[in-house]
């Protein structure tokens, strides 16, 4: 028993010394081994399910998961770890929050959201993207938000159940409409364009903060976007998160489950929306983002 405890302590001490890239590789290996076939967005799962993933690993991770649970974060939604999980998680959580708006406020909230989306399209074109490139993706996003209050051709309005069906739809081989499968990737593409627009249209704001991760050399917004924003499958980091939140006027909290502290979990906060608006919350594990859900107190 003593040798096992000593081994565990050694593992945890070494874990703290891991580089960012080593933590990324370790986490991706864990994800691939424990959940090899994850849909783009999964159904809500209790935090106990997440805890099981780490039972054979560091006690520090288990302590952090327990801490989150103690703070009222009772559930999470997995996002497929394909490099687009940040943008996809934000998109799903953003629309799901609109759906959760009280009925008496829903029309005005959705109208405000549609006005904001329209402004982001103008900013994308201002940043140099041709309208023909952005039109289809914008229309998919806009129509999905409109469907919260305006019935579609089948007289359906969007529900949480249908939202999940859309984000899980495949091009073929399931019971969902084939056309649904184009919506999530188009929205992810649109959010990348939104991020690019904010960085390019406000270049002076980001001067000195954009750099090449591999070389450490500074990059101009165009070069940064070409390498770290535009390519599908390249995950977002702090600057991309900042830019997207500013453009969409979002409040966002990102909980860092990194196995480095046992007594707490660090949250990185982005406050670009109204003060009264509750933040969307994501769970970050090195190289990966999921949606974190806090129990509403009644």
Automatic annotation (TrEMBL):
Enzyme category, top tier: hydrolase
Keyword field: Hydrolase, Protease, Thiol protease, Ubl conjugation pathway
Keyword check for Protease: yes
GO cellular component terms given for this protein: nucleus
Superkingdom to which the source organism belongs: Eukaryota
Listed SUPFAM superfamilies: Cysteine proteinases (SSF54001)
Domain OTU, first and last residues per copy: 74-295
Protein name: ubiquitinyl hydrolase 1
Organism: Candolleomyces aberdarensis
């Amino acid at each position: 028993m003593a040798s096992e405890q000593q081994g565990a302590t050694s593992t945890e001490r070494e874990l703290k010394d891991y580089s960012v890239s080593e933590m990324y590789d370790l986490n991706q290996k864990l994800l691939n081994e424990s959940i090899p076939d994850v849909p783009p967005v999964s159904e809500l799962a209790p935090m106990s399910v997440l805890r099981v993933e780490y039972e054979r690993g560091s006690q520090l991770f288990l302590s952090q998961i327990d801490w989150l649970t103690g703070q009222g974060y009772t559930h999470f939604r997995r996002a497929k770890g394909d490099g687009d999980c940040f943008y996809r998680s934000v998109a799903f959580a953003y629309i799901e929050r609109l759906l959760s708006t009280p009925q008496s406020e829903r029309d005005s909230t959705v109208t405000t959201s549609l006005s904001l989306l329209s402004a982001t399209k103008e900013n994308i074109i201002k940043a140099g993207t041709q309208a023909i490139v952005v039109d289809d993706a914008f229309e998919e996003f806009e129509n999905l938000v409109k469907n919260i209050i305006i019935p579609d051709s089948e007289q359906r309005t969007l529900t949480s159940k249908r939202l999940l069906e859309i984000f899980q739809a495949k091009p073929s081989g399931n019971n969902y409409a084939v056309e649904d499968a184009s919506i999530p990737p188009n929205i992810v593409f649109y959010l990348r364009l939104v991020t690019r627009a904010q960085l390019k249209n406000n270049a002076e704001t980001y001067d000195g903060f954009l750099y090449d991760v591999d070389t450490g050399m500074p990059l101009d917004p165009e070069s940064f976007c070409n390498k770290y924003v535009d390519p599908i499958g390249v995950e977002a980091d702090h600057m991309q998160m900042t830019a997207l939140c500013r453009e969409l006027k979002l409040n966002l909290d990102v909980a860092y489950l990194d196995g480095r502290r046992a007594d707490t979990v660090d949250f990185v906060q982005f406050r670009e929306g109204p003060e009264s608006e509750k933040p969307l919350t994501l769970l970050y594990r090195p190289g990966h983002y999921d949606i974190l859900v806090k129990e509403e107190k009644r």
